[in-house]
Amino acid sequence: MRRIGLALIFLLGVTFPAAAKDTLVIGISQFPRNFNPNIESMLAKSYVLAMARRQLTVYDADWKLVCLLCTVLPSYENGRAVNELTADGKPGIAVTYTIHPDAVWGDGVPITTKDVQFTVEAGQNRKSGFGNSELYKRITKVEAKDDKTFTLHVNKRTCDYAGIADLGLLPAHIERPNFADPAEYRHRSAYETDTTNPGLWYGPYRVSKVVAGSYIALEQNPKWWGKKPAFKRIIVKAIENTAALTANLLSGDIDYIAGELGLTVDQALAFQKRHGDTFDFTYKPGLIYEHIDLNLDNPVFADVRVRRALLHAMDRDAINQQLFQGHQPVAHGQTNPLDEVYEPEISKYAYDPKRAKELLAAAGWSQMRKGVRHNAKGERLQLELMTTAGNKSRELIQQVLQSQLRQVGVDLRIRNEPARVFFGDTVSYRKFRDMAMFAWISAPRNIPRTTLHSDQIPSADNGWSGQNYTGFKNPEIDTVIEDMETVCGEKENLALWSRLQRIYSEALPVLPLYFRANAYIVPKWLKGIVPTGHQFSSALWIENWHAEQ
Amino acid sequence: MFPYIAGRLFESIIVLLVLSFAVYGLIGLMPGDPIDLMIQGDPKLTPADAKRLKALHGLDQPILDRYLAWLGNAMQGDFGYSRNHSKPAIDVIAGGIGNTVLLLGISLILSLAIAVPVGVYAALRPYSKTDYIVNLACFAGISMPPFWLALLLIILFAVVLKWLPAGGMETVGDGSFLDRLHHLVLPVITLTIASVGDFTRFIRASMLQTLRYDFIRTARAKGLSMTRVVTGHALRNALLPLVTIVGLSFGRLFSGALITETMFAWHGMGKMIYDAILGNDYNLALIGLLFATGLTLIGNFLADAGYVWLDPRVSLAGREQQQ
Predict the structure, then answer these.
(1) How many interface pairs between A and B have CB atoms less than 8 angstroms apart?
(2) Contact, B99 vs B50, CB < 8 A?
(3) Are A237 and B158 inside 8 Å of each other by CB?
(4) Residue-averaged pLDDT of chain A
(5) How far is CA B24 from CA A24, A424, B69, B261, in A?
(6) What is the 3-state secondary structure of A15-75?
(7) Do B32 and A40 touch (CB under 8 A)?
(8) CATH numbers and ranges of domains, chain B
(9) Nearest in space to B195 (alpha carbons), one of B296, B306, B109, B300
(10) Does pLDDT of B42 surpass 60?
(11) Which CATH number is correct for A288-516, 3.90.226.10, 3.40.1190.20, 3.10.105.10, 2.60.40.3410?
């Protein structure tokens, strides 16, 4: 018995040294499914790879397109963007990039145009399993000027020609043999079979160990050509349960919870109440647009006055203040005010229950029976609001909206489904009867073709493709979207953005709620993290992170 | 004995076949396939991309065709690739089995090591203060949700006392035997507390009943000491029903392991199967569930064998004849 006791004391009493400051342990709530940059897009993967790779172009924290791996962005002014005609006489464009002269893979092999050519070849192969292949389909030819400079000939002239973040560069010297059978590439890629091979990585860090489902260790890349990072080692631990994630932070098992993949704002606020003195808290609103899609096939929503009345009846400012302490700004449209194309002079719908009542009455919902509006046919103004079950923030908002809409005579019923069913069936197949609350994630200056163009309405005829789930049809919006892709003069393009936002705010195909914020919980000694608010994570600038005693 | 084992093996294969079809079908009935899930994570994926990827992954085929193709490959030892891990499903499972068996094995042994003596002790003093305290502790353990218990233990031992790690399987850069043992303590305690109550209550009830039998009175009348009566006569009989319960509890322990593994970021099979089902990772979900079923079947077989060992009157051959 005494021996057992001693063993227990030993087991419990032995404490292991806390991570030294040359190691940063980051907690995230998801483990990457794979490591190949082109097979599937996933937030956890993007976050980890941001430390070990550098895309040619990205948007920075000021939401400006910048070069990371290239030396200069192509433009008409610098002669690196040149209009041309495709073989079939359509407007195309040739864009020229130069890879950073010192850029090398982690094994010392220079990054060259051969890697670009191989990546495009793999991306254009239908069997390679690349997720988003749009960019590769548009590239008709890669012309290598020398080892470092190449020109992409693109068969569609669009205004976002300079950004090629989707080109996930692959090391030809390692991956070409694995590509011998393209259909098997996704299984044979060294990113999955030999993840710690230094030659796969070309960022400040390289992946040194992967314990599936548990953690990824990254160590400094001695071949990195940029600013030397401060931490010798980065550990990214995946802890799915957010309560366990915060407990790990408090116990010191992790140093920092990534804002991109950590706690929601309400969870972070609750944590801040108890531990506000120990950590720095940053809430960065971004491009995650929470909104309510309306099923415009429903006759109730055919009258725009009803849509406007609903928005007037929602006190979104109060929701933001009460539930999120003002950290998730109210959205007046789908374009974020931080985006340079944002148009402030659009129709906005402040909380005004009186106006909401007037609009509803004018739309024919004038008879009140037992606190609910009815129309001349005796139909009750009862709407169903659906969202993802288990999402606490959304469920709280539903309850508030139910109460607020009741005050103007709208009977709001709540019906939620697991995310899997909600997105996989209800939303994708436009099965929601009235209203569906969810979020869109986009990039700066992202043209909303998939969500607003009439050719993107999912239906049986088009195999339920497209994301215009509201069924919004507006010929002017269609034209504006098409022009936005090709009219690239800054002034003219901004005018189109402005027009789009004005139409959107007038027509209200969806009810804007707020822009979601990411919550960064940072130890006071950790400096240099700059949240971006878009899909390019703060970890892309990890070489600026450092410990300050 | 051999015909019995062969019969059980045949039964098990049928169960596994039926289950594989049921699981494949059920996952297939879930809304959305892996590519639909991919689209949610990447709004830039075009309908053409989705179509191409569905064809590449064979998701454009009817579910029965896909199942038969899977079965044909599985018969040849090819269980396909895991979508969630981008590795052969069998390799992924192999990585998780050891971790889960370690966790479940230790907690099961610990649970029994606590439950048997405590249950017997309580049964020997029915309705005493000790018995009430044991019952109370058992009900507390049974009623406590494992995730809540896990969180409490993390806060106490990792956050407040800082004696134990809050999660994970090893300290990065260490990974020694002692280090792994250190990381095992909290998950094992959680699983043990979650299961020990049931076992203790069962032992107590079984022992109480056994102590009322005539042969126990006879043994006492012969002048045997209570210790001898309990260890030599009563316990052996009282353990018989427990063997069945332990055999059946394998499956339940897996579900407990899922929560424990999630809370402690322990990379085991429970969590792996759960993620595979949610992520539409057919191959991994199937092989994981089949393995869990196989383990339960083995558990039941061992329970039957345990019966024979504990009670010589029971014969597997006889049971086979009865079938």
Answers:
(1) 168
(2) no
(3) no
(4) 91
(5) 42, 18, 12, 24
(6) CCCCCCCCEEEEEECCCCCCCCCCCCCCHHHHHHHHHHCCCCEEECCCCCEEECCECCCCC
(7) no
(8) 2-88 (no CATH), 98-313 (1.10.3720.10)
(9) B109
(10) yes
(11) 3.10.105.10
Closest CA to A213 of B95, B154, B172, B174: B95
Long-range Cβ contact pairs of A396-404 (< 8 A, separation 24 or more) = A396/A266, A396/A323, A397/A319, A397/A323, A397/A437, A397/A513, A398/A437, A400/A315, A400/A318, A400/A319, A400/A322, A400/A323, A401/A314, A404/A313, A404/A314, A404/A315, A404/A353
| pLDDT surpassing 70 at residue B320 | no
- Bridging pattern class, strands A279-294 and A510-523: antiparallel
Written as one letter, the residue type at B269 is M
Does the predicted interface ipTM exceed a cut of 0.90?
A: no
In the CATH scheme, what architecture does the domain A2-52+192-285+517-547 have? 3-Layer(aba) Sandwich (3.40)
Contact (CB<8Å) B168/A237: yes
> For the segment B205-218, what is each residue's pLDDT rounded down to a tens digit?
999 999 888 888 88
Number of residues that make up chain B: 323
Is residue A476 exposed (0-12), middle (13-18) or buried (19+ Cβ within 10 Å)?
exposed
Structure tokens at A109: 């092999």
Domain with CATH 3.40.190.10 in chain A: 2-52+192-285+517-547
Closest CA to A141 of A95, A172, A178: A95
Tell whether A424 lies on the interface with B, counting CB pairs under 8 A.
yes
In contact, A242 and B154? CB cutoff 8 Å:
no
Mean pLDDT along residues A410-433? 88
Give DSSP secondary structure letters for A526-547.
EE-----SSSS-GGGGGGG-EE
Partner-chain residue, chosen from B47, B95, B172, that has the shortest CB–CB distance to A212? B95
CB count within 10 Å of CB B265 equals: 28
Contacts of A428 in chain B (CB under 8 A): 32, 36
Tokens representing A466 are 């497209």
Three-class SS of A245-263: HHHHHHHCCCCEECHHHCC
Closest approach of chain A CAs to the CA of B174, in angstroms?
10
> Is B172 touching A (CB cutoff 8 A)?
yes
What the block records as the tokens of A434 is 């009235």
Question: Is the model more confident about A464 or about A181?
Answer: A181
Q: Does A11 touch chain B (CB under 8 A)?
A: yes
Which residues, including other chains, have CB under 8 Å from residue A192's CB and lie 6 or more apart? Answer: A34, A35, A36, A186, B86, B87
Phi, psi of A383 (to 5 degrees): -120, 150
For A:337-396, CB contacts with B below 8 A are: none
Q: Which DSSP string corresponds to B79-129? A: --EETTTTEEHHHHHHHHHHHHHHHHHHHHHHHHHHHHHHHHHHHHSTTSH
Please provide the CATH number assigned to the domain covering A57-175. Answer: 3.90.76.10
Span A349-373, pLDDT tens digits: 999 999 999 999 999 999 999 999 9
Task: Among A10, A249, A420, pick the best mutation site for testing chain B contact (most B Cβ within 10 A).
Answer: A420
DSSP for residue A145 = S
| CA A292/CA A42 separation, integer angstroms | 24
> Nearest by CB to A33, which of B86, B158, B174?
B86
